[in-house]
Design a protein that fits this description.
Layout (H helix, E strand, L loop, with lengths): L5 E3 L2 E6 L1 H7 L8 E3 L9 H4 L4 H12 L5 H11 L12 E4 L2 E5 L9 H5 L2 H11 L5 E7 L4 H9 L5 E8 L5 H8 L6 E7 L2 H13 L1 H9 L2 E4 L6 H20 L9 E6 L4 H12 L3 E8 L4 H8 L1 E3 L20 H8 L4 H14 L1 E3 L2 H5 L4 E5 L2 H15 L5 H17 L5 E5 L7 H13 L4 H12 L5 H4 L10 E4 L3 H8 L2
Parallel strand pairs: 5-15, 6-7, 6-9, 7-8, 8-16, 10-11, 10-15, 11-14
Antiparallel strand pairs: 1-2, 1-3, 4-5, 12-13
Length: 496
């Protein structure tokens, strides 16, 4: 198999290996690394039903990470997908209300970010060795709630790395914040930021592109990288679970090999649904990709009009990990629908940076026919949680409920009867207050987070995850808060 190289969305002349792209995280020009082509599956669809998660990961990832030896990749996969997941299936698919929920929250921080961030530290340290990188890797990560904890859990005390996480103070759930500020590890630092997620993300991207700052930290023996889904080493592992879900549907006898399915994803930063798009381009039989937004519906408006416009009110919702107005990974899709024209992509991203908006051509818009954009109001999200629990006893978190509500609208609009996988992106325990309020607000109002966890366990018949039990009495280890313009100072202070 020929080696697959990576170029960037803003400079097609730049070419790097997969391991080099993983170390760098973000390209020097601010663009995102993309594969020069999307490889096709080497296994038959029929074989998927008998493959474990590790085997599926190997078959998918070896096609994208071609400069890794089979042994290196196997070591990374085996280290990532082990007993840190509380279900041996790793990512089970469960039917409820006519849809098939792909449970991506069985990792150590009970959110879908664990699926990729369990393996990224192993991919990154292996990449560093392959490329003779002797500097310490300083990972900068902005989080809207889940990436931060999952990244820190993955990188905590990993030799040769340090990780800094920036989160919007007051813009995440109490449980999400407590998970982060109690994180142990001599190489981790958490900073609350007086701003929203987009502010945090923009500040981190700016630091990656700051040549003087990069030179200064290089002098101190550090090199920047990212654990956000802008890093291709995080995006590629996300493709795996959609392929695995198809295999599970085959194994359950729900579909036949070759039968098309739909995939619904609740998304803010677009990485999770982009992974599904890549799976489709690899040959997975997927028809529609249903992109579900909460009230911050910048993606819904984009798919409807071809205009991406972040100049709007930022709304805090019960699904905070989706409270995003700048969807970084959309840039990769823009690059593909622009005919892989990096100049066009760079121009559009310049418009976004300078004007806060851009508009794609009619030809580009026509290439979005695989996607259906939908949005759900808070009232619709709560109604979905309540109705699905009442009808089936199955409990959704608020983000997955956004997807469930949008999927219901899609079926009503189109009468499409394809079997549909819904990415279930977080455990309801992360958002117990909102979830229980949706089911019976009067009964659970006024209870504390851990009292709510007890109630949710009794109601859902699902044991309280260790991720919740473990933070109940854990001491707060991180209490730094800064303004947006103080982020760089925090980074310089950590790089000592």
């Amino acid at each position: 198999m020929s080696e697959l190289f990576y170029t960037t969305t803003r400079n097609k002349d730049l070419k790097v290996t997969a391991s080099q792209a993983i170390i760098k995280g973000l390209a020097p020009d601010g663009g995102l690394f993309v594969p020069e082509y999307i490889p096709e599956f080497k296994v038959s669809l029929d074989d998927l039903k008998d493959m474990s998660y590790r085997q599926t990961a190997m078959e998918v990832m070896k096609l994208f990470l071609t400069d890794f030896t089979d042994e290196e990749l196997k070591n990374c996969i085996d280290s990532a997908y082990d007993d840190k997941f509380d279900n041996p299936v790793i990512a089970p698919v469960k039917e409820a209300g006519g849809a098939y929920y792909l449970e991506l929250f069985h990792g150590q921080t009970i959110a879908f970010k664990d699926m990729a961030l369990s393996i990224l530290p192993h991919l990154m340290t292996t990449s560093a060795k392959k490329n003779g990188v002797n500097d310490e890797i300083l990972i900068l990560t902005a989080t809207s709630g889940d990436t931060g904890k999952a990244a820190m859990a993955g990188f905590a005390d990993v030799p040769g790395t340090r990780i800094m996480v920036f989160y919007p103070k007051g813009g995440v759930s109490n449980i999400q914040e407590r998970q982060m500020v109690t994180q142990k590890g001599n190489n981790v630092k958490v900073v609350g930021v007086n701003g929203n997620f987009d502010d945090c993300q923009s500040a981190v991207k700016k630091m990656f592109a700051d040549s003087k700052l990069n030179a200064d930290i290089k002098e101190k023996g550090f090199v920047f990288s990212s654990a956000n889904s802008i890093n291709i080493g995080r995006l590629v592992p996300q493709i795996v679970y959609y392929v695995y879900a198809y295999g599970q549907l085959l194994k359950q006898g729900v579909i036949e090999a070759g039968e098309k399915i739909n995939i619904t994803v609740p998304t803010g930063n677009f990485g999770n649904i982009l992974a599904a798009h890549y799976a489709k381009r690899m040959g997975l039989p997927v028809d529609k990709l249903i992109c579900a937004s909460n009230e911050n519906k910048v993606l819904y408006d984009f798919f409807k009009t071809g205009v991406y416009d972040k100049n709007r009110e930022f709304i805090l919702t019960s699904s905070p990990s989706m409270d995003i107005l700048i969807s970084s990974n959309l840039e990769r899709l823009i690059y593909h629908i622009a005919g892989e024209d990096s100049e066009v992509t760079a121009s559009l991203m310049k418009d976004l940076s300078e004007k806060g908006r851009y508009e794609i051509t009619d030809d580009m818009k026509a290439k979005l026919s695989d996607f259906y954009g939908g949005t759900a109001l808070e009232s619709e999200v709560f109604a979905k949680i309540a109705s699905l629990y009442k009808d089936t006893g199955y409990v959704l978190d608020t983000h997955t409920a956004v997807a469930g509500a949008v999927y219901d609208k899609y079926v009503k609009d189109t009468q499409d009867t394809n079997r549909t996988v819904i990415a279930s992106t977080a455990s309801p325990y992360k958002f117990a207050h909102s979830v229980l309020s949706a089911i019976d607000k009067a009964k659970y109002d006024g209870l504390g987070d851990f009292e709510l966890a007890d109630e949710l366990s009794a109601l859902s018949k699902v044991a309280i995850p260790e991720a919740i039990q473990g933070i109940k009495n854990a001491p707060v280890l991180h209490d730094t808060v800064c303004d947006i313009d103080g982020i760089e100072e925090q980074v310089r202070g950590f790089a000592q």
